């Protein structure tokens, strides 16, 4: 028990510390030549039961970055989640992303990306009813470029270490009309570059509106590799409204809070 508590506290501290590092880094970025842009995202994340421990999900999203002059549309289907244990899930899905670069800024083309991925989500069991997890997934990115009519193929490994903390007593954790805090870090390793690009820190607030709907307001700080020296620098603010929807009244709790319902 002592070891588990130490691990739990350590992971939570790392996630929260990494989140609050973002504030001084933002201020530092304004003094250099990095062009920091602002991106806005709206996503709807519906879930539906299939059979037993297997459930499905879809993904609908819209992304806009006025400074970089692009818009993205996301559509994901099919998506599958299998809960092997309360602490272990397997994920797989196919996403399609269309990017509209209005003015071909910096020579960028409009693109269509097909992005299948497989992954595993591991939860750290605890008595606090916190969601402490590692969500690692491997993405296969197939991108069609409309101007050149060429396809590019890359792979990316995403490792998200996160914590979700109910803003209530343990007895009321994850119940209807309660809020929860969200914090995570997510470096993404690109195999084609043999490098981390990008890396993100996220924090936000979620609300268990009812048994079927959970809206989340999220902020991401994004670090990308820009400039001739390929340095990883803070270059983007991302504001996202994420809406999780469950077609079964118990589904969201079973997927997002396994072992805590």
Architecture overview:
It is a single chain. The protein is mostly beta strands and 261 residues long. It has one domain (2-256): Porin (Beta Barrel), CATH 2.40.160. The protein has helices spanning 2-29, 251-256; strands at residues 37-51, 54-65, 70-85, 88-101, 111-123, 131-145, 150-166, 178-190, 195-208, 213-226, 231-246. It has an 11-stranded mixed β-barrel with strand order 1-2-3-4-5-6-7-8-9-10-11. It is globular and about 55 Å long.
Question: What are its keywords?
Answer:
single chain, 261 residues, mainly beta, Porin, 11-stranded mixed β-barrel, 2 helices, 11 strands, 13% helix, globular, disordered N terminus
Topology:
Blueprint: H1 2-29, E1 37-51, E2 54-65, E3 70-85, E4 88-101, E5 111-123, E6 131-145, E7 150-166, E8 178-190, E9 195-208, E10 213-226, E11 231-246, H2 251-256
Parallel strand pairs: 1-11
Antiparallel strand pairs: 1-2, 2-3, 3-4, 4-5, 5-6, 6-7, 7-8, 8-9, 9-10, 10-11
Q: What name does the CATH topology carry?
A: Porin
How many DSSP helices?
2
Number of strands: 11
Helix content: 10-25%
Query: What overall form do the CA principal axes indicate?
Result: globular
Average pLDDT over all residues: 88
- Main beta-sheet strand count, sense and barrel state: 11 strands, mixed, barrel
Oligomeric state: single chain
Span between termini: 21 Å
Unreliable sequence segments: 1-31
Q: N-to-C SSE series?
A: HEEEEEEEEEEEH
Radius of gyration: 19 Å
- SS content category: mainly beta
**Widest β-sheet, arrangement of strands:** 1-2-3-4-5-6-7-8-9-10-11
Percent strand equals: over 45%
**CATH domain class:** Mainly Beta
Number of domains: 1
Q: Per CATH, which architecture? A: Beta Barrel
């Amino acid at each position: 028990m002592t070891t588990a508590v130490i691990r739990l506290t350590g992971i939570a501290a790392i996630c929260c510390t990494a989140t609050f590092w973002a504030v001084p880094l933002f201020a530092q970025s304004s003094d250099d030549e990095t062009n920091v842009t602002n991106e806005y995202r709206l996503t709807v994340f519906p879930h539906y039961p299939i059979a037993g421990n297997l459930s499905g999900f879809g993904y609908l999203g819209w992304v806009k970055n006025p400074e970089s002059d692009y818009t993205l549309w996301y559509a994901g289907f099919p998506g599958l989640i299998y809960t092997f244990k309360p602490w272990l899930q397997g994920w797989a899905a196919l996403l399609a992303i269309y990017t509209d670069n209005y003015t071909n800024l910096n020579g960028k083309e409009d693109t269509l990306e097909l992005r299948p991925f497989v992954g595993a989500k591991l939860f750290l069991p605890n008595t606090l009813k916190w969601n402490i997890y590692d969500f690692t997934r491997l993405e296969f990115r197939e991108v069609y470029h409309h101007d050149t009519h060429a396809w590019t193929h890359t792979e990316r490994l995403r490792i998200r270490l996160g914590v979700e903390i109910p803003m209530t007593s343990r007895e009321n954790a994850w119940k209807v009309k309660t809020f929860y805090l969200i914090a995570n870090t997510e470096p993404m390793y690109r195999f084609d570059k043999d490098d981390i690009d990008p890396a993100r820190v996220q924090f936000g607030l979620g609300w268990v509106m009812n048994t079927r709907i959970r809206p989340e307001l999220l902020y991401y700080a994004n670090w990308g590799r820009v400039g001739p020296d390929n340095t990883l620098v803070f270059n983007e603010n991302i504001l996202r409204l994420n809406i999780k929807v469950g077609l079964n009244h118990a589904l969201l709790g079973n997927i997002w809070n396994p072992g805590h319902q």
